[in-house]
Structure formats: structure tokens, C-alpha cells
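Progress report, Aim 2. The chain analyzed during this reporting quarter is listed below.
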Amino acid sequence: MKPVHIIGAASGVGAPDHGCAKGPWALQHSHAFRHIAHHPRVTWRETLYARPSHGDTPLAQVHDLCERLCADVRGALADGALPIVVGGDHSCAIGTWSGVHAFLGAGQAPGLLWLDAHMDSHTPETTYSGAIHGMPLACLLGVGDKRLVEVGGVGPKLRPEHTVLLGVRSYEPEEAEFLQRLGVRVMAAPELSRRGFETCFAEALEIVRQAAGGFGISIDLDVFEPRRVPGVGSAEPCGLQPEPVLASIARLRTAPNLLAVEITEFNPGRDIECRTAALLSRLIANFLPQD
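Predicted C-alpha cells for the chain:
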């Protein structure tokens, strides 16, 4: 199995609540993370911070961080490692998956399984809040502010037919129409309740693994039930229970075509009894090499 390189993306400027900027540091220094920190094949490669300067807008800061994250993810893959990105708000996904796309090269795009309570598919024209963490999936699909769409190179970084959203339960009609128009598969909460999480997860994997170059997983922690996982900035009721997600993801430990993992929106200021830090550590542990 590949060694693991963890990359912190410590930015909250893409979200209304900037508290998730402290997520990577809080995880790295938590009791729950200690057994991972001492794993012989795990390296905390770097933590990237938003670089505010006089006159910088949130968009400029997100763009700068995502360009650096793109280079870091590409570098980890070139070193033969599995990059695991820990956010930070979900706008960092623009950098993560642009980096994977850059590593694969022209003409290839990773499949992507996106677990989230939200669709994150607004554009500057449709957004209700202006928050950039509500736009990353649209940017990766090639629609949005040019600076963000072109992180790591021009053109879309994902293909709609190899992209699946799972666990969605809060969105605006403009996002749903956008994804439907492109043909992105969306498995919303009612479908998961009707068919069962394991069945839907297996179908989602089948779709994203059809991408020739490999696939990745992006997990926004607000996909989970907030009473179980409270340390997030945009909690939504009636989320997923952690246990079936952990069990399904554990089966991917040895998947040879898994390219990268991303876990975002950990807001330690909202955590209770370190429940979210503990789950985040358990999610990461599922991808560690077993020596």
C-alpha cells in the first residue's frame, strides 16, 4: 500500500464561519490523532494557510491557497503517496482535485465521490450567500469564476458522468438544475433512506471507478448527523450515521485506483467532547497502510 501524506488546508475564508480554518491544527494536536501521528508510513506533509494581505478579497485568498494545494497534491502523487487533505472549508476542493487532474495529465479526469449535506454547485450568478464554499463542485465541473475554474490549468477537472453526490439534503433549485443538466448523479437523503446507504454507496463507487485514471473521495463532515458529529460550520439535521460510512470506506483501504481523499469543514470551536475530531481520525485511519 502507498504511504500517506496528510496536507492541511487551513482556510475558512470561503465560508461565513471562519472557524474551520483551525481544523487542521486542532486535529493534528488532538488526543484522537496521536496513533496516526506515530504511524511509520504517515507524514503530515504541510499545512497551508490563507495568506491575507491588504486589499485581498476572499476569492483572491481562496485562489492563492488552491493553487498551492494543487501543487502539493500533485507532488504527493508524484512521490507515490496517497494524499489526504484535511480542511478547512470545502472551497479547498478546487485545489485538491485540480492537483489530481494535473497529475493525471491532459485528457484524463478522476472520478469523484462527493459526500456532503449540500450540493456546493452554485456559481457567482446563482449564489444566495456569496460564500465560495458553496461553489467548488461547479468550479471543478468547469463553471464559475475564471480564476477558480483555471486553478491548475484551463478546463474542467471532473467529468459529470464520473461524479456522484451522496447524502445531499439541503440545496437550492439552481444547483439541482445545474447538476441535472450536466448529468451528475445525485443520491439525496430520501433515496438513501429508501434504498439503504450500503446499496447507494456501492452504486456510487461503480460510477466513479469507471474513470480510467482512478477515483477520489471528498467528505464534508456536515454529511453526518450533527448530534453525532457537531463540529461543523453548516450543520443540517437528519444526516448519515458514522458507522455505515466507516464500514464502507474501510473496504477501500487496498483499492489500487484510489488517488486521493479529502475531509473538510471540521470546526473545532463547535465540537463537543471531541466527537468530530475522533470521527475525523477514524476516517483517516481507514486509509492507512497496515504493516
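The longest helix spans residues 58-78. The chain has a mean pLDDT of 96. These observations will guide the mutagenesis work planned for the next reporting period.
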